[in-house]
Predict the structure.
Amino acid sequence: MSAVAIEGVWKFYGDYPALRDVRLEAEPGACLALIGRNGAGKTTLLRIVAGFSRPGRGKVKIFGTEPRETETRRRMGFIGHGISVYDELSAFENLTLFGKLYGLPDPRKSALEWLERTGLERVRNGLVREFSRGMRQRLAVARAFLHEPSLLLLDEPFTALDDRAIAVLQRLLREALAAGKTIVMSTHQLREALDLASHVALLSRGQVAFHGPRTPEMVADPGYVYARYGDSG
Amino acid sequence: MNFPRQVLVIAIKDLRAEIRTKEAINASFAFALVVLLLFSFAFDPEAETTREISGGLLWIVFAFAGTLVLNRSFARELPNDCLDALIAAPISGAALFLGKALANYVLVMAMEVVSLPVFCIFNNVGGPVSQKIWPILMVMALGTWGLTVIGTIFSALTVNIRLREVMLPMLTYPILVPALMAAMLLTKGLVLGQPLTGDSLTWLKMLIGFDLIYTAVSLALVEIVLVG
């Protein structure tokens, strides 16, 4: 059973098809890098996979179940464009809140553990609105990993991260892959993404232009996929 | 985590955030007090007609000041895309909605409980209101739940609209007309010293029915409102 199965997904904004018959699969333990120019449909696709919006046509299965099923959501972690933590709450309160929502047995213990793993234990009681950008991003990473998800959906996870946050995220992603977890990430940072990816999918104007395993050529030249499989737009 | 606990976690989160920022409650309190003050200049506090329109005056203040709280309900989730994190969490849309409605209810009721004595002083109705304080509080509780439920679901519906501050009152007030009518007439009757019998009882039943129906409809529709 695939970790993620996207079957003939279409999405329309008005009459405009943002996604056109997208078919992709990611096996358990795989790391799929979704690449493509701005407006190719990467974020739209990830939001459908995450269950934030429904496809116009087609369907998405996560470990064989619907994305909006409660148990499916429990197995997913998502990092989007925003950090998805509350400015008015402290780092500890934010993580405890999400720990409770995900039904963790000891939310406070998990929150403390992840504050430590992301280097935020010294500022645990500080309000997020007082944090630097890098600290906020590390907290966002902690929030996404807090409930030990089997599937991580990351929308441009390396964009605007500082060096420390990139290092933290890369370490956590490698640990997640080593533990057999599945990652689907959209990105423009080809070098960082191809370093981790086992598979690559190129989206072009809402369609899958290429989908296959990562090859040595792609690692050697991150622009190879664009050049070889065409995406002049 | 069971459903009631999920509701409570969301409600506590919203209340904690509001207590720290005070962005909705300050505006709501200030608006209510200013309007009550202006009304006291517009109408003669000694006149019998003032008592007769007192229910209407009070609920106009509650409805408009309450909207300032309700407007922030889902808008609070927009910075940092927090709504995505809530939608992604393994809780039902109904738990999310009820949690937010509960937090809004507490905030709107707080505004009303502070406004009521001010209203009594400015309109010289302290005596009649204190004699019927428990029925009046019951009407406030029921009317406020209707206001909160409608406001919260439309706050979710309009959260991604640029002109949501304008859209929310435009959408909520027409639907709230039956509940506001019932609350106004019940409050007027109680201020005039009438018991909750006859027509008043019918209005009370209508208010309870309104609350039950719109709570059920909101719970059924919230998932569609949030995800599509």
Observations:
- The longest strand of chain A covers residues 16-26.
- The CA atoms of residues 34 and 186 of chain A lie 4 Å apart.
- The beta strands of chain A are 4-13, 16-26, 31-35, 57-62, 76-79, 151-155, 182-186, 199-204, 207-213.
- The radius of gyration of chain A is 18 Å.
